[in-house]
Amino acid sequence: MTETVLARIEDGVAVLTLNRPEASNAMSMELLDALHAVVERYSRDPAVRAWLINGEGRNFCAGGDIIAFGDTPDPSGMIRALADRLHDSLKILQAHRAPVVMAVQGAAAGAGFSLVTGADIALAGRSSSYLWAYAAIGLTSDGGGTFNLPRVVGMRRAQELAYTGRRLTADEAAEIGLVTRVVEDDALQDEALKVAKQIAQGPTASFGAVKQLLGATYANDYATQLDAEAESIAAGLRRPDGLNAIRAFLDKRKPVFTGE
Question: Which of 58, 111, 228, 239 has the CB geometry, 3.0–4.6 Å to 143, for a possible disulfide?
Answer without folding.
Answer: 111
